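Figure 6 in text form: structure in, sequence out.
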C-alpha cells in the first residue's frame, strides 16, 4: 500500500479519535452555542434547521471549486485531499511523517473555539 494511503488511513483514525474525545468534552455546550441563534439557552427545531442550512450552504459553496453550482467527484475528492494534506502538514509539526495525538487534540480544540467565535460573529 502506498505511503500516502497509509497516511490518509491513519489520519482518518486520528480524526475519529479526536472527534470522539472532543465530543465528550464539548457536546452539551458546543451544541447549544452552535445552534442557539437567539442565545436563550434553548435550541428550537427552527434554530437547528436554520443553523444546519447555513452550515450546509457554506460547505457546499466550499466544495464547488469552479462555482458552477454542482459538485463533481473530482471537486469533492480534491477538496478533501487538499484538506487532508493541509491537516497532515499542520499536525506533523517536526515533518517526520508521524503525528502526535496531543498535537491533534490541541489543534482541534483551538480550531473548534475559533469556529465557535466565527459562528457567533455571523449571527
Ligand atoms: Ca434558542
Ligand atoms: Ca462545480
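Output sequence:
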Amino acid at each position: 500500500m502506498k505511503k500516502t494511503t497509509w497516511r490518509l488511513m491513519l489520519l482518518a483514525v486520528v480524526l475519529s479519535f479526536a472527534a470522539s474525545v472532543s465530543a465528550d468534552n464539548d457536546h452539551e455546550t458546543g451544541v447549544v452555542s452552535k445552534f442557539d441563534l437567539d442565545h436563550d439557552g434553548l435550541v428550537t427545531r427552527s434554530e437547528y434547521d436554520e443553523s444546519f442550512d447555513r452550515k450546509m450552504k457554506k460547505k457546499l459553496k466550499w466544495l464547488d471549486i469552479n462555482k458552477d453550482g454542482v459538485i463533481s467527484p473530482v471537486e469533492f475528492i480534491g477538496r478533501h485531499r487538499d484538506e487532508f494534506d493541509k491537516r497532515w502538514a499542520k499536525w506533523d509539526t517536526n515533518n517526520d511523517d508521524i503525528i502526535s495525538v496531543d498535537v491533534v487534540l490541541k489543534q482541534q480544540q483551538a480550531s473548534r473555539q475559533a469556529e465557535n467565535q466565527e459562528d457567533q460573529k455571523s449571527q
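Caption detail: DSSP finds four helices and no strands in the chain.
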